[in-house]
Amino acid sequence: MWIDYSAWDHIYVSDDEEATSPFVDTPSLFRMRHRSRLEKMAAFQQRGEDLQTNFAECQRLLEETQRRLRYLQDGMKDGEADEEKEAELKKVQSEVEKLKQDEKSFQLLMEDHQREEKKLPWNVDTISKEGFSKSVLNINSSRKQETLQEKVEKHKTFVEKYAKEIKHFGMLRRWDDSQKYLSDHPHLVCEETANYLVVICIDYEIDEKHALMEQIAHQAIVMQFILDLARTLSVDPRGCFRQFFSKIKTADKPYQNAFNHELELLKERICKCARLRMDGAMKELEEEEKQTRLGPGGLDPVEVYESLPKVNQGTHLLPTALFLLFPIHKDSL
C-alpha cells in the first residue's frame, strides 16, 4: 500500500525566507505574517463555533415546536376544533417547516466549513499536535531528621506489624512473584523490610540453615537495589520497584554481575555477624558458669587449679585449693 504524501504539498510557512522585502525588517515581517495568520485562524474557528451553536439552537427550537404541533393535533382529534385553534395549528406548521429549512441550511453551511477546513494549508501551529502532556516534579520534602531512638521504635513497630508478610516475601524465588507481591503490598518497599530480612538471615545462619539464609539474602539484595534506585532517581521507592524488576529481568551482564557481587558480599557479612553473635553467646555462657562456680572468697576453683604448676596439679593438692577458696577466719578458731 502506497503512502499518500500529497498532504505535504501545501504547507504555509510564515517565516519563508524567499518571500522577503528589502524595505521591511525581516523579523518584523515574519512576526506580522504570523500574527495575521493567527487572526485568520481564530476568525475561521469562531465561525465554525457559531455555526455549531446556531445549529444546536435551531434543533432545540424545532423539537419544542414539534411538541407543540403534536399537542394541537391531538386536541383537534378529540373534537376541540375551532377557528382559533385551526389558525394556531397552521401557524405552528409553518414554523416547523421554516425551522426544518433553517436546520438544513445550517447543516449545509457546517459541511462547507468542514470542507474548507480540510483544504486549509498546514502551518507550524497545525502541522502537529501533542498527544499528551505531563509534568512530574520530584521535590524532597523537608523532613525532620529522626533520632536513633525514633528509628529503633519505628523499626520495632513495623516489624511487629508486618513480620509475616516480610518473611513471605523473603521466600519468593521468581522475579514476577516478587513484583506482584510488592504490587499488592507496596508498604513493604522500605528500609525496615531490608533490615529485617538481614536479621532473619543471621538467625538462619546461626541455626546452620544455610540454604534458607541464601534465599532470604537474595531478597534482601533485591530490596536494597530498589532503595538504591529510588535514591538515585530521588523518588519514593514504592514508585520505582517495577522499574527495577523490568531492568533486572532483561539485565545485561555487568548489571547482573553487580547484583551477584553484592549478594556474595552480603552473605559474607552475614556469616561474620553470625560468628560474632555465637562467640558472644559462648562468652556470656562461660561467664554465667563462672559466676555459679565462685566461692566465698570470690575465686574460681577452675582458674585456681589451672594456675597451679602442672607438677602440683594432682588430687593430693585438693585440700590446699579448698583452703585457698574457703579461708579459715580467726573467729572460727
From TrEMBL:
What is the phylogenetic placement of the source species in the record? Eukaryota, Metazoa, Chordata, Craniata, Vertebrata
Alphabetical list of InterPro entries matching this protein: Cdc37, Cdc37_Hsp90-bd, Cdc37_Hsp90-bd_sf, Cdc37_N_dom
On whether Coiled coil is a keyword of this UniProt record, the answer is: yes
Subunit structure comment from the entry: Forms a complex with Hsp90.
What does the similarity note say? Belongs to the CDC37 family.
An annotated GO cellular component of this protein is: cytoplasm
Q: What range(s) does the Cdc37 Hsp90 binding domain occupy? A: 128-289
Specify whether Coiled coil is a keyword of the entry.
yes
Pfam families attached to this UniProt entry: CDC37_M (PF08565), CDC37_N (PF03234)
Q: Where is the Cdc37 N-terminal domain?
A: 2-135
Keyword terms of this UniProt record: Chaperone, Coiled coil, Cytoplasm
The free-text function statement in the UniProt record for this protein reads:
Co-chaperone that binds to numerous kinases and promotes their interaction with the Hsp90 complex, resulting in stabilization and promotion of their activity.
Please tell me the species this chain comes from: Oryzias sinensis (Chinese medaka)
- From the UniProt record, list the coiled-coil ranges: 48-116
Top-rank lineage group of the source organism: Eukaryota
Example of a GO MF term = heat shock protein binding
UniProt name for this protein: Hsp90 co-chaperone Cdc37
Task: Spell out the Gene3D superfamilies in the cross-references.
Answer: 6.10.140.250, Cdc37, Hsp90 binding domain
Per the UniProt entry, what are the Gene Ontology biological process annotations, in alphabetical order? protein folding; protein stabilization
Q: Which subcellular locations apply to this protein?
A: Cytoplasm
